[in-house]
Amino acid sequence: FNNRRSTNQAAPEPIFVGPEAGNGGGSLLDITEVDVNNPYNPLGFTLNLSTDTTTGGTDYFIGRRPLEGGPRIFEQNVDTWYAGGGFRGQFTAAERDFFWDLNAVWSRNRADQITHGSYNSQKIKNALGPGLAVDAGDPITACGQVVGNTVPNPIPNCVPFNIFGGQQGGAGSITPAMLNYIQPVLHDNSEQELKDFTANITGTIFQLPAGALNFALGAEHREQSGFYQPDAIYPAGESAGVPSGATEGEYDVDELYGEIQVPILKDAPLFNLLSVSAAIRYFDYSTFGDDTTSKFGVNWRPVKDLLLRATYGEGFRAPGIGELFGTFSRFDATIDDPCTDYAGLLGGAPKPANIQANCLALGVPNTYAQFNNQISVITGGNPDLVPETSDGYTAGFVYSPRWASGQSWSDALEFEFTYYKIEIDDTIQARDGQAKLNGCVETLDQVLCDGITRTGSGVINGFNNTLINIGGTTTSGYDLNLRWALPETGIGRFTFSWQNTILDEYVDTVATAAGFVDEAREGTQRGSPSIAFPEFKSALTADWGLADFSGALTLRYTDAVTEVCPAAAQGLNLCSSDPVSNKMDATTYVDIQGSYSPSGLSGWTFTLGVNNVTDEDPPFCFSCELNSFDGGTYDIPGMFWYARIVARFGKE
User: DSSP letter at 30?
Assistant: First the structure.
């Protein structure tokens, strides 16, 4: 059993009101009106949704991030149960030993979350409607139709809302009474459950001149299920923040698998060792039917010091519970609209003729300018997904020279090199939001434009980008590792390891109405959601040990990447010399760790460590959706200290 209690914080939740707000997902705030009789309306007329200008209807947008409401606080309480057990044994038949095991696992993860600092859109709509003004110090307020100087049928507990007043030097125009009416405390919960049963048997089929022909056979039955239940405010359509809906789903799978290892030659000229392996797996999903995958490998050691190896394997990944059944949700992505000021009437340079024509065809007026590059993108699972399939290839060598062992300068030396190439079909992911919008505007491709809607004034008010099977992904690269152990000295024993990954290619193939298009990712940063594809990553570690003490120093290096520079940053000349891109510099982190394992206290180890000793900041990212850096690739800013005590009892 494991229990986790955690709290995290985000900026105060913004409130966007009006048909130009672009909240998406059918938000009430997109159809909220501001009544002329709202006591805080400074305009003298009603902001309504009518398109008839004779009645005062207009396109409008009101944006306010109420600092008075405080930050969003998310409190999680997560319980995880895990139970596993089984039997294992061995028997002899035909003068050969066989080993078997039977296993069962059950696990459940239950997460409950409480959210503070969000807003109720229905109550905001009530509070922006007609109501009574309040004299200073008078606590009595009322929302509802004003008749004379009274509201005969007030909305219970409603307090007129002042969204127009600003921060007023820090005090803010939104009072505690207003916040008490529009700020709910939200509760949601989710649960995932796993049941898994396996049976395995391994042994030797018979002896070959080069060794034993070994096999492994097994079977597995797995059941997975899950659900998500949001606060009642969400299915009621009253959330002013990110919408979501309840969902649940389950599937099960049966699998059979087998593997053999066949030694062919041993201790022969140029064949110190030659062996091959083969594996096959059959599976039957309740959601997708059945299929098989296979794998083949060869190991060749021409001399004792050198091992050459290669593999080919097929892959199959069925969509998970969340990918299939995950409810819709809104993601506020940072996206530049190519149609902003496309005619150059607002001070910018006119866009190319085809962009101007396409923006006009999309219903965008030539006076349109994007005022908010956070576009509300609807994401979520997709029950129509099909599994990913893949082909993977690896080839490489391991060189462990005996001449570098037992020397005054070396106790052991090893080089390892691997080339890999993986080709995935029907990759499961959402399209890059910026690429989807750019492609729509540049080509009017109906596949790319599907799900993107605009208001009459050109503002994007709908952007559907749920998970799909894109055409595929191809990636290739190299892993190069070095390990060097030095002999024991008076100041301890040192071991150095250097691990390097070189990304040669990473291409997503996406479907359009005109066919498939390749999008190269290597050396780039993809924003919203943030994913970096550095072409070179490296980690150099020096380990030291002396008596009861040990330590490690690690340098972690990530190569520079380039992101598309948002229009707002271009306008302020914040990006690199290339006006449409920004180079995110290479980053190096330094980590230190020390441990003490007292010989007089067997089984105990005390460890103290610091990650990012030099307090290196991640490179600034303009396209990343949060915090201006990519948290999936780089460390959270600041040094990270940790301490750990491990105690082991009994024999292992």
Answer: G
